[in-house]
C-alpha cells in the first residue's frame, strides 16, 4: 500500500515538475525573443542613433525668436504633426513640424538658423514655396519653408551662425507659380534630414528638438 502511494506521489511530483519546467522555458523563450528583437532592431539602425546625437550637438536656438516687447502677442504654436497625411500634390506624409504664427501676417515673424552651417539651397519649390536649406557641421540638413522673403544678405554657399536671420515667416507655396501665397495660414515648416550610409535621405521628427529649444529663444524687435 505504502509503495503504491509513494509511486503515485512520485508520478504526480514528476508530472508537476515537468509542467513547471515547461512554463519556465516558455516564459524564458518569450523574454529572450523580445530581447533579441530589440537588439537586432538597434543593430540594424546605427544611423538613427547617430543622427540623434548629431542633431543634439548642432542645435542651439529655436527657429522663431521671441518679441522683445510683447511675448504673448507675437507667440507661436506647434504640435507633433510629423508623418501625418497630406494630400496636395498627391497622397504623402508630412516630413516636418509646422510652427504657426499667432498673428496671421506674412513677413512679420523672423526666422533664424537653429545651428551653424552652410546655406546649401535657396529658391522656390512647389510644395515649400521660398525655402532655405542649411547643412550643419555634423551633416544635418535643416529645412525652412514657406518663407515670405529672405534676409537681404543671404546667398547660397555662405556660412551662417546659429541665430543668424534667414528670412521671415510666410505662406508661400503649393503652386508651380513662383510667389504664390494664401493657400494656407502663415507658418514655418521646419524639417530635419540626414543622408543615410546608403546615400538615401531620411527625415526625422523635429518636435522633440523644438521642445528642447523652447528654453533657448533669442529676442528680436518685431516691427
From TrEMBL:
<keyword id="KW-0812">Transmembrane</keyword>
<dbReference type="GO" id="GO:0004222">
    <property type="term" value="F:metalloendopeptidase activity"/>
</dbReference>
<dbReference type="InterPro" id="IPR050570">
    <property type="entry name" value="Cell_wall_metabolism_enzyme"/>
</dbReference>
<feature type="transmembrane region" description="Helical">
    <location>
        <begin position="17"/>
        <end position="36"/>
    </location>
</feature>
<feature type="domain" description="M23ase beta-sheet core">
    <location>
        <begin position="92"/>
        <end position="196"/>
    </location>
</feature>
<dbReference type="InterPro" id="IPR011055">
    <property type="entry name" value="Dup_hybrid_motif"/>
</dbReference>
<dbReference type="InterPro" id="IPR016047">
    <property type="entry name" value="M23ase_b-sheet_dom"/>
</dbReference>
<keyword id="KW-1133">Transmembrane helix</keyword>
<dbReference type="Pfam" id="PF01551">
    <property type="entry name" value="Peptidase_M23"/>
</dbReference>
<protein>
    <submittedName>
        <fullName>M23 family metallopeptidase</fullName>
    </submittedName>
</protein>
<keyword id="KW-0472">Membrane</keyword>
